[in-house]
Amino acid sequence: MGQIVIDIPSNKKRRYVVTDSKQAETLLSTLDSSAVRVKANSAKLSRQQLQDLRDGRAADRAMDDMRRTGVSYTVEDLRKKYGLA
């Protein structure tokens, strides 16, 4: 029997047992696509490291979206849009 440890940004503690191997594979693939995998026995990540990981994932999603839609913006366009120019 395997085990997964998930650190979440809230003070919640729960324990689950997944008995169906197909559901376990679905769970693992969902985690692999939506969470950041860390090496075994790695030190606990700091808030800054977690934020950096979130920012990196958001940038990856933005790049994927830009590639999918073909729409991109210059820094000047964004400054005008958000009133920073």
Name the descriptors.
mainly alpha
Helix content: 40-55%
Q: Rg to the nearest angstrom?
A: 18 Å
Largest sheet: number of strands, sense, barrel closure? none
Total beta-strand segments: 0
Approximate strand percentage? under 5%
Task: Give the overall silhouette.
Answer: elongated
Query: Which stretches of 5+ consecutive residues score pLDDT under 50?
Result: none
Structurally, the number of domains stands at 1
Q: Indicate the mean pLDDT.
A: 84
Secondary-structure element order, as H and E? HHH
H/I helix tally = 3
User: Separation of termini?
Assistant: 57 Å
Structural class comes to mainly alpha
Molecular structure report:
There is one protein chain. With 85 residues, the chain is mainly α. The protein has one domain (21-81). It is built from 3 helices and no strands. It has helices at residues 21-34, 47-69, 75-81. The longest helix is centred in the last third of the chain and has 23 residues, at 47-69. The N and C termini lie far apart (57 Å).
List the helices and strands and how they pair.
Layout: H1 21-34, H2 47-69, H3 75-81
What is the structure about, briefly put?
With 85 residues, this protein is an all-alpha fold. It is built from three helices and no strands.
